[in-house]
């Protein structure tokens, strides 16, 4: 199975990164258009990416300021059953982020597009946290 992985620094404390990856108001600044959920194992997240993409995920791992992972239970066929997660560790002046999107069934066009999209979304998150930049949802892949 192919996986998407990215490792990178963000120069803000882990608690700020954790809020951005696990709280709806954080997610809506860099990834989702709308979202609801609580970062507790077993909790359900509603993740809105427009009218035709209202997805549901379950929290499979959550350790405050350290780890957060979601498993998609209602999503596009390629994403259903996959897991998106973050591991955070403190570094000098910030946080090292280890990102993964595991469980892809095949290396298809959607997988390759998602590899690109994750890189772009994670860049938007980094810019939001480090510089306070916000990008409208519809323009995030062009930022």
Tell me what you see in this structure:
The chain is α+β, with helices and mostly antiparallel strands. The chain has one domain: 2-Layer Sandwich (Alpha-D-Glucose-1,6-Bisphosphate, Chain A, domain 4), CATH 3.30.530.20. Helices cover 27% and strands 36% of the residues. The longest helix has 23 residues, at 109-131. The mean pLDDT is 97.
Number of domains: 1
| CATH-assigned fold name | Alpha-D-Glucose-1,6-Bisphosphate, Chain A, domain 4
Distance between the termini: 30 Å
Instruction: Determine the structural class based on helices, strands and strand pairing.
Output: alpha+beta
Q: In CATH, what is the homologous superfamily?
A: START domain
Strand percentage, roughly? 35-45%
Instruction: Outline the low-pLDDT stretches.
Output: none
> Sheet with the most strands?
7 strands, antiparallel
User: Which overall shape is indicated by the principal axes computed on the Cα atoms?
Assistant: globular
The CATH class name reads: Alpha Beta
CATH architecture: 2-Layer Sandwich
Topology (elements, then pairings):
Elements: E1 4-10, H1 14-22, H2 24-30, E2 34-36, E3 44-48, E4 54-63, E5 67-74, E6 83-91, E7 94-102, H3 109-131
Antiparallel strand pairs: 1-7, 2-3, 3-4, 4-5, 5-6, 6-7
Helix pairs in contact: 1-2
């Amino acid at each position: 199975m192919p996986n998407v992985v990215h490792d990178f620094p963000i120069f803000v404390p882990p608690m700020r990164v954790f809020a951005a990856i696990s709280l709806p108001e954080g997610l809506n600044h860099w990834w989702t258009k709308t979202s609801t959920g609580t970062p507790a194992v077993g909790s359900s997240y509603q993740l809105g990416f427009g009218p035709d993409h209202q997805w549901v995920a379950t929290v499979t791992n959550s350790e405050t300021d350290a780890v957060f992972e979601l498993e998609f239970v209602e999503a596009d066929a390629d994403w259903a059953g996959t897991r998106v997660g973050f591991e955070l560790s403190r570094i000098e002046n910030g946080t090292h982020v280890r990102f993964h999107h595991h469980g892809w069934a095949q290396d298809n066009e959607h997988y390759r597009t998602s590899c690109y999209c994750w890189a772009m979304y994670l860049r938007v998150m980094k810019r939001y946290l480090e510089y306070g930049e916000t990008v409208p949802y519809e323009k995030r892949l062009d930022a």
